[in-house]
């Protein structure tokens, strides 16, 4: 499966229900917020930071990026998303991202048993 699509599904599984639960936004707004975060996080976190560093640095960077993104979107669109809800969402996303990066690392490593 394409890495971007995998990240889109991962972020959607985490963000859509949490944003829908924590705020009074529509399901479509939560889907659009999830897609927006996925696009930004994929290109900055996965294509740039993860390739230049390691899983831990990329995961922390993705978490910070998600927190800033969620805060900014909440302010711009006047969502009732408070700091605790943002941090909870970012923690769940961070755990998911950690495992996502590990999977990508295993895919990128050549099979050492066949060498």
TrEMBL record:
For whether the record's keyword set contains Membrane, the answer is yes
Report the transmembrane regions from the record.
Answer: 5-21, 27-44, 56-77, 83-104
Listed A to Z, the keywords are: Membrane, Transmembrane, Transmembrane helix
One Pfam family recorded for the sequence: DUF2512
Query: What is the protein's name according to its record?
Result: DUF2512 family protein
Task: Show the taxonomic lineage.
Answer: Bacteria, Bacillati, Bacillota, Bacilli, Bacillales
């Amino acid at each position: 499966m394409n890495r971007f699509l995998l990240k889109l599904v991962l972020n959607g599984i985490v963000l859509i229900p949490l944003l829908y639960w924590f705020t009074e936004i529509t399901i479509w707004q939560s889907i659009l917020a999830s897609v927006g975060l996925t696009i930004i996080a994929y290109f900055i976190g996965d294509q740039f930071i993860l390739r230049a560093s390691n899983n831990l640095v990329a995961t922390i960077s993705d978490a910070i990026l998600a927190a800033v993104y969620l805060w900014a979107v909440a302010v711009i669109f006047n969502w009732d998303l408070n700091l605790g809800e943002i941090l909870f969402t970012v923690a769940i996303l961070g755990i998911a991202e950690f495992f996502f990066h590990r999977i990508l690392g295993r895919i990128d490593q050549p099979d050492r048993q066949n060498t």
